[in-house]
Amino acid sequence: MGSLGEKSVNEGFLYGTHAVIIQCAFFTLMLVASEAGFRLGRKVESSTPAQTKAQISTVEAAILGILGLLLGFTMSMAVSRFEVRKQLVLDEANAIGTSLLRAQLLAAPEGPEIAGLLREYVNVRVLYGTAGNDLARLDNLHQQTTHLQTELWTRAAAYAQRDPNPAKVGLLLQSLNQAIDLEATRWTAFRNHVPQSVIYVNALVGLLAAMLVGYAFGVNGRRNLFSVGVLALAITLVLAVITDLDRPRSGFIRANQQPMTDLLHRP
Length: 267
What we know:
The structure is a single chain. This protein has helices at 3-7, 12-16, 19-43, 50-103, 110-129, 135-162, 167-190, 196-219, 225-245, 258-264. Helix 4 packs antiparallel against helix 5 and helix 5 packs antiparallel against helix 10 (258-264). 80% of the residues lie in helices and 0% in strands. It contains ten helices and no strands. By secondary structure, the protein is mostly helical.
């Protein structure tokens, strides 16, 4: 996985544009859609019978209900991915910690050397988890990770071939293999976003809902800026949380790296 793999973290408009810009633009579009609906409603106000106005209110409630279901479904997708990323940090830290303990069972000089390499590996993984979207740094850290994995596995495998009682080193190889696998799984999880098409559908339905709310105000001959503003803000905030949860390296909500950091202070 080279730099091209890292660039996929930022692909697409949603992940390559600053979150504040996206949310401000969407909030503005919500207000514009509402105003467009209101003006359209005012044009047909005089020719719209009372019964039709009541039906418009029914449709308005229905589309807001659909929007609520969509937002809830999408939020669930984003939260589940966030929880997976957070759990993988803990799982990888546990696998590396187990490898550290098992390396201490090996005789010198191999045991202390492998333990030292594992501590260096932990430091690289901590830096990798907190590197943000600095692609050059991420690529360098990934290369260091791959080099250390190769070095650890080579030394442990060489020790296993010389050890007449391979049980202890076999356990070390098992936990090392798990740690290596979890590193690859974490990288895959970082790229596992909520499909952008799903978020775009949420945004589109939100805009349609805002337009219909404005239209309903228009056919009734009155504008309620406070209600429209609150609706636009609420939908924008929910979408902001969804996209933030789905930005594993650049969002405000990030998986806690504390389990990995704690390994640096383990004696």
